[in-house]
């Protein structure tokens, strides 16, 4: 066993705990560890490829899942053990400076493989043809920028971005504040039920709201809740998701997302509001402030940071909104959005080049947010 | 109940009670509508709104035929197995890799540490759509030739979940007392031993929190499953999406199918809600 020396370790300790031979390079051990690493990576790669090539070997899907789980977690543990063994066999000074990178390497390699490398490759493909076999310059960008569907999608996306994050934060604040005034049981129940849609997929949510927006011919009983209410006030039944006037159909789809995300917003804001020091509220109350003044002048300024966090998180989600539009209208009736346009270019039209160009536009759109997140993180680090 | 209301001398707020009751009903009605409709026959569901069935629960013909039909007829049973086979490994595997990285970020100092962590934060924002064309090529016939199999989806979910997992675990680990690591060091423990014996067990709440969120995200995902799994390996969510496309015949199966896709996430939600809340508050808000 080897101990780690840093300046934080008291000097007398170093004399006690450092047997001299452990500081030397042990090539045998290092070689063995290296061999172990190569072997485990080779074994895991082959096992996982075998799941792909010969699924019939394993009998059933559940067996595959269990073997993959054990191999994935166990293999990672063995890999880290060999990695650690290798680093510890190095001369001590070298070992100390390498070990952090050894801990980081597997995770960063995975991120690089599925996010960084593809990001570069996608930019590359955006200059290539529909099956990524030859470069065609800026033609993909020309095609998408002259496509009216692209601009309609951009307009819709901007509308989503203007409405959904703001409304989600607003509902979250209202619910969090009001729930705080309920009894403990009441608060718990109400929050649970409003939070519940977080567990529901976008596809199921669209199915759920499909029942609400359902249409039946005039004269027959309306099974859609919205049309039932509408006709009971004397209106004609409407096919709600085809109404482009005032972007009503897009707004109705946004309702689905707000319904899903309000719980997330409420949970974060509720935690923040409960963290507001009671004495600041008490002081305002003694000064004769009304409940609404306390809320606006005392509570809101102290939870502004969380409000921004929720806003940005939902904003990022909305930028990439896909499922709801895809399964409800697939972009028809002027409801298209960027991510759905991308999916149809890639999946239905097999236009990998244009699809890549659309992703690059999306990537450019989120890049200010990367900067924002980094700045936000730095502020929190220096504050905390 | 009234005692907890009085803890700071506040009167019972009727505005809050009424508004919250209304909001809660508003938020619950859509799901109840789905649940009720899923137990009605096609003719019944077409003849009247689901709320009328609730008004006369004893004369309504309740049926489980939709569930039987969707489970056997449209392959939802097979898809349910697929969803489990996709979601469980894709939830657990990233944790192993991320925990080591989080440990390095939380307790070690090394050159370029901040740069690496800023990359993780930046990658959190990158849309996953960037990965699709290159990964389809890499896993497809011109690459590894494993398209349509689980492995591609595990790989993608592991990679996509990694930044958030590192971020959440690192934020949690920085709240652990540093003296734990310091004294382990003094006792001659290597970082590897400190990780296994102390930090990993102490981080279990954060690990459970991330696992809950990742499970819901993987289970509920449409995009990756649709692009990277072949039909016989596909998940319940893709099955449901295909049901949504059908008009007329078989439409009554939709509600039952939707409820089947929600069943496991709901169980996870109600049993692990505590962890989920913690995951959200520690992932997005510091502390």
Report on the architecture of this protein.
The complex is a heterodimer of chains A (384) and B (287). By secondary structure, chain A is an all-alpha fold. Chain A folds into 2 domains: 11-125, no CATH class; 142-383, MetI-like (MetI-like fold, Orthogonal Bundle), CATH 1.10.3720.10. Chain A is built from 15 helices and no strands. Chain B folds into 2 domains: 2-63, no CATH class; 69-284, MetI-like (MetI-like fold), CATH 1.10.3720.10. The relative contact order of chain B is 0.13. Classes of the chains: A mainly alpha (384), B mainly alpha (287).
Tell the overall outline of chain A: globular
Fourth CATH level, the homologous superfamily of the largest domain in chain B: MetI-like
Largest sheet features of chain A: none
Largest sheet of chain B: none
Mean pLDDT of chain B, to the nearest integer, reads: 87
For this structure, the quaternary state is heterodimer
By helix and strand content of chain B, what is the structural category?
Answer: mainly alpha
- CATH class of the largest domain in chain A, named Mainly Alpha
Give the percentage of residues in beta strands of chain B.
under 5%
Q: In DSSP terms, counting alpha (H) and pi (I) runs of 4 or more, how many helices of chain B?
A: 15
Task: Round the Cα radius of gyration of chain B to an integer and report it.
Answer: 24 Å
Low-confidence stretches of chain A: 1-21
Helical proportion of chain B?
A: over 70%
Reading the helices and strands of chain A in chain order gives HHHHHHHHHHHHHHH
Distance between the termini of chain B: 30 Å
Task: Find the count of extended strands of chain B (DSSP E, 2+ residues).
Answer: 0
């Amino acid at each position: 066993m080897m101990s780690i020396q840093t300046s934080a370790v008291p000097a007398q300790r170093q004399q006690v705990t450092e047997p001299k031979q452990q500081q030397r390079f042990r090539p045998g051990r290092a070689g063995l560890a290296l061999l172990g690493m190569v072997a485990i990576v080779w074994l895991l790669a082959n096992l996982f490829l075998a799941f792909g090539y010969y699924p019939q070997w394993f009998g059933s899907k559940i067996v595959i899942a269990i073997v993959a789980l054990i191999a994935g977690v166990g293999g990672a543990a063995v890999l880290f053990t060999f990695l650690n063994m290798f680093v510890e066999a190095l001369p001590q000074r070298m070992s100390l400076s390498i070990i952090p990178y050894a801990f980081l390497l597997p995770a960063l390699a995975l991120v690089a493989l599925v996010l960084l490398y593809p990001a570069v490759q996608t930019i590359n493909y955006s200059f290539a043809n529909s099956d990524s076999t030859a470069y065609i310059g800026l033609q993909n960008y020309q095609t998408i920028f002259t496509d009216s569907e692209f601009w309609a999608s951009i307009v819709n996306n901007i509308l989503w971005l203007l409405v959904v994050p703001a409304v989600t934060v607003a509902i979250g604040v209202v619910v969090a504040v009001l729930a705080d005034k309920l009894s403990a049981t009441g608060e718990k129940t109400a929050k649970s039920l409003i939070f519940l849609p977080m567990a529901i997929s976008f596809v199921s949510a669209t199915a759920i709201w499909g029942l609400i927006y359902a249409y039946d011919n005039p004269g027959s009983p309306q099974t859609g809740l919205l049309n039932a209410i509408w006709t009971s006030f004397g209106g004609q039944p409407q096919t709600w998701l085809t109404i482009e006037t005032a972007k009503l159909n897009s707004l109705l789809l946004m309702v689905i997302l707000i319904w899903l995300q309000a719980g997330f917003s409420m949970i974060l804001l509720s935690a923040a509001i409960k963290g507001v020091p009671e004495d600041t509220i008490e002081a305002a109350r003694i000064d004769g402030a009304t409940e609404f003044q306390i809320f606006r002048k005392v509570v809101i300024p102290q939870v502004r940071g969380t409000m921004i966090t929720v806003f940005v998180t939902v904003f990022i989600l909305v930028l990439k909104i896909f499922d709801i539009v895809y399964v409800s209208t697939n972009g028809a009736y002027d409801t298209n959005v960027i991510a759905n346009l991308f999916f149809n270019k890639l999946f239905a039209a097999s236009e990998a080049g244009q699809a890549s160009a659309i992703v690059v536009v999306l990537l450019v759109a989120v890049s200010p947010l990367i900067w924002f997140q980094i700045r936000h993180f730095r502020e929190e680090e220096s504050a905390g | 109940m009234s005692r907890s209301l009085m803890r700071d001398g506040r009167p019972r707020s009727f505005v809050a009670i009424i508004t919250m009751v209304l909001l809660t009903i508003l938020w619950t009605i859509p799901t109840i509508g789905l649940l009720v409709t899923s137990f009605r026959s096609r003719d019944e569901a077409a003849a009247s709104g689901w709320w009328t069935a609730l008004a006369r629960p004893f004369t309504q013909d309740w049926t489980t035929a939709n569930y039987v039909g969707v489970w056997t007829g449209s392959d939802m049973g097979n898809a349910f197995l697929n969803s489990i086979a996709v979601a469980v490994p894709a939830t657990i595997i990233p944790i192993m890799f991320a925990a080591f990285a989080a440990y390095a970020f939380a307790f070690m100092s090394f050159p370029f540490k901040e740069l690496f962590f800023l990359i993780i934060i930046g990658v959190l924002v990158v849309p996953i759509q960037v990965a699709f064309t290159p990964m389809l090529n890499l896993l497809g016939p011109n690459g590894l030739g494993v398209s349509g199999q689980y492995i591609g989806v595990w790989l993608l979910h592991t990679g996509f979940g990694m930044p958030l997992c590192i971020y959440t675990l690192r934020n949690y680990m920085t709240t652990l007392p540093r003296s734990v690591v310091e004294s382990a060091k003094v006792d001659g423990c290597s970082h590897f031993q400190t990780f296994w014996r102390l930090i990993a067990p102490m981080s279990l709440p954060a690990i459970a929190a991330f696992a809950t969120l990742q499970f819901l995200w993987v289970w509920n995902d449409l995009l990756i499953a649709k692009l990277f799994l072949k039909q016989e390996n596909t998940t319940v969510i893709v099955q449901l999406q295909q049901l949504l496309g059908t008009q007329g015949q078989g439409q009554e199966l939709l509600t039952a199918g939707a409820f089947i896709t929600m069943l496991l996430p709901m169980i996870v939600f109600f049993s692990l809600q505590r962890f989920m809340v913690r995951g959200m508050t520690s992932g997005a808000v510091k502390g």
